[in-house]
Amino acid sequence: MSATQTARLQLRLRPRPLSTLAPSTLQLSDEVRSALETNKPVVALESTIISHGMPYPQNYETAMEVEKVVRDNGAIPATIAIIDGQIQIGLSQDQIRHLAKLGRVAVKASRRDLAVVMSKKQTGATTVSATMLLAHRAGISVFATGGIGGVHRGYENTMDASADLTELGRTPVAVVCAGVKSILDIGRTLEFLETQGVTVATYGSTPDFPAFFTRTSGFKSMLNIETPNEAAELIAANHAVDLQSGIVIAVPISEADAMSDSVVGEAIDIAVKEAEEQNIFGKESTPFLLKRVNELTGGNSLKSNIALVKQNASVAAKIAKDLS
Fold it and tell me: Full-prediction pTM beyond 0.85?
């Protein structure tokens, strides 16, 4: 038996800690709690994509469809958010609808915002960094999202880099995504992840690193993995060594849903220039850029975004199933 196979067996046999926090801090849905207690596969899902990623009712419909994809592939979805100051691990249909209708009224909550949102009894939608942190606290090892944040273009002037990157360096959760959002500086983002000690793998036949809307970025991951089992082995090995860092599993968007490099590139260049002219930066930057890119592409980028999120959810569920 290999070392990683032994690690996976130990993970299965070891009782999974539901949380190191006080029971009142994390409110787990009955379904998620039962799944964790019986070592069934669970996939964490973020909620910023619901509140800030697209308009109502598309955001609500997409969230429900993504949860269904996770279930159809053998895992339990755990959408994470803060509702009136209470951290929720696993949302009800009514809670998802409520968050979808709130839209950008909900706080876009990264790691730094969690204590503020909780103490003020606000409703917050969790970003990749906050979702990773809370998933780990709840005992969930696999998380599906659209794309991770990264180093913003013009970083040398603004020092604007997503908290997702530092979270990946200190939280042992595997993030299944379509790579880095192509509105960002992908090369510098990969360098940042390397410095943080984060394993970056492409899910597919080549190590070509995807760029969210497009299948390639011109950069490569450190390796490629081709099956859910291979991904599960990688995650188990990470836990066996107790690296305390995350893993990026980058899934290229399907050829049918991918966009033209030139079309996306032109739209992004225009959107970035407009953001600079309007002095939009920080946590407001990504929602603005994605919205403008969608407008400039006639809605095609949103269609691609929805398709890739569903694909990532499917892959994440299969990985979680093999890991459990």
Answer: yes
Is 68 one of the annotated active-site residues of the chain? no
Element counts in the chain: helices (H) and strands (E)? 14, 11
pLDDT in tens, 259-316: 988 898 899 889 888 988 998 877 677 778 878 888 898 888 889 999 999 999 999 9
Distance of CA 159 to the CA centre of its chain: 22
Q: Where are the beta strands (DSSP E) in the chain?
A: 26-28, 42-45, 76-83, 86-89, 107-109, 124-126, 142-144, 174-177, 199-203, 223-225, 247-250
Q: Residue 149 and residue 158: Cα distance in Å, rounded?
A: 15
Q: Rounded to an integer, what distance in angstroms lies between the CA atom of residue 304 and that of residue 321? A: 26
How much is the pLDDT for 13?
44
Q: How far apart are CA 184 and CA 268, in angstroms?
A: 9
Q: Of 181, 283, 310, 321, which one is the catalytic site residue?
A: 181
**Amino acid at residue number 260:** S
Are residues 313 and 66 in contact, defined by beta-carbon separation less than 8 angstroms?
yes
CA dist 225 and 201 (Å) reads 7
Instruction: Look up 121 and say whether it is catalytic.
Output: no
Among positive and negative, which fits the CA dihedral 79, 83, 88, 90? negative
Name the active-site residue from 46, 67, 167, 233: 46
- pLDDT digit string (tens) for 220-232? 999 999 999 999 9
Residue 17 burial (10 A CB sphere; 0-12, 13-18, 19+) = exposed
